Amino acid sequence: MRTLSDQLRERIGADAVLTAPADIAPYLTDHRGLYHGRACAVVLPRAVEQVSQVLALCNERRIGVVPHGGNTSYCGGATPDESGRQIVLALARLDRIRAVDAAGFTLVAEAGCVLQTVQRAADDAERLFPLSLGSEGSCQIGGNLATNAGGTQVLRYGMMRDLVLGLEVVLADGRVLSSLTPLRKDNTGYDVKSLFLGSEGTLGVITAASLKLYPKIRSVATAFAAVADVQAAVDLLGELRERGADLVSSFELLPRIAVDLTTRHIPGVADPLGGSHTWYVLCELSSSRAEEPLAETLETALAAALERGKVLDAALAKSERDREAFWRLRESVPEAQRRDGASLKHDISVPVARLPEFVRQGSEWVRDHVPDGRLVAYGHVGDGNLHFNLNQAPGADPAAFLARAETVMRAIHDLVQAFGGSFSAEHGIGRLKVAELERYASAVELDLMRAIKRALDPNGILNPGKVLRAPGPRDRTPGTRDHAPGTRDRTPGTRDRSPEPRDEETS
Ligand code: MLT
Ligand code: ZN
Fold this sequence. Notes:
Elements: H1 4-12, E1 17-18, H2 21-24, E2 41-43, H3 48-61, E3 64-68, E4 86-90, E5 97-101, E6 106-110, H4 115-124, E7 127-128, H5 141-146, H6 154-157, E8 164-170, E9 176-179, H7 192-196, E10 205-212, E11 214-215, E12 219-227, H8 230-243, E13 248-255, H9 256-265, E14 279-287, H10 294-307, E15 311-316, H11 320-331, H12 333-340, E16 343-344, E17 347-349, H13 355-369, E18 373-380, E19 385-392, H14 398-402, H15 405-418, H16 434-440, H17 443-456
Parallel strand pairs: 2-4, 3-4
Antiparallel strand pairs: 1-2, 5-6, 6-10, 7-11, 8-9, 8-10, 12-14, 12-15, 13-14, 16-19, 17-19, 18-19
Zinc ion (ZN) binds near residues 379 and 380.
């Protein structure tokens, strides 16, 4: 029997199938370095028909397929397991903007388009595509769709899901769901596309999307302010939204340590304010009207808050350069954390009004239980989404610090649960949080998710072991339940079960 790679080459061309260790190495490790997988091939199709052929073949041969975009997942969602029996399906060559309809405020982009390319295509047409993330220069729109990405403008424009009108998706058996509608109103039965958004490649491979555009931004006002505490930040957000109607587009919270880490580790980042304060916010108002008095609105709100002692100091961006400097500080926090040493990440959300109390209780817990760690809690307060991260304390042993990951995560996620929040606000589940989903999702939700997975991917070839645990032989009968919640936590580096190829396949 011909090997899988031979068959793949026959179908989509030799240059689209990589097997040499040096060629495939970049696709086998996630960007946090948590997972190091193996793969029998990396395929780089150029068209949806080729994706379809790859999936049809893999479905027939029961080969696991791991879709791969910009490799910026925080949860190992795009990394194959260690079996060497999966292929990586990289979408980078599907990188065309198929259409821009300025009059209809829509754009059709292929999955491999880098987010920044989509933003620029919209901008060239005097429109705005509002999804904005620190990794926008490398993450791909297919990954943004598959993970329902969030970012820094969710407050105003919603998450990726809210920006989608239609999708083109290749199903597990190779059939293509072609639904790139530009329609904003279309109540024709179930909203099938919704299933694929946020499914992390476990239900189908998104190859293109019809996206919503907005009026281009023509005025903007940005401030970096020190606030008395988290409650003051939440109050300021409420006040700004009242005064500025729906013009607040970003509202980010940063602790002092984020300023310290970025100014220390990221060249060119400077503290916009003097003195040392406990909490800061980076807030931005924006409008498509060039003459909107945004700076005035922002200044008045900040001055009033200063008078009440809620804001302690503030700097308004006087130029695009200032604005970029504020954002550079904010967007460099993950990289600064990485350069500072080992870190534990918790991408949580709670109702905005409950954030202050959550931060108080969570900080107390960290202080009392993790003496070798320092809290770096920052994020998108406007959405109730905090990256409640911890970094190893200076001089701490990274291995000993990381060994606490399970305990720390359990305590923080249990607290989040008690606050009615989510343990995965915007980063998804990937491989990292499969056990967390089993623990915190209700039995009904899990049953539905498993039923949907079985219906769309009966052979379990799509991104096996991501979001839902890959069923083992004894779990394969439809209707049988998987393991009890939390009973089989897997830590990075341990082995997943994945569909096995029918013949020996390594090349
Ligand atoms: C961010 O908002 O910077 C990210 O989503 C990353 C993080 O968890 O650090
Ligand atoms: Zn974030």
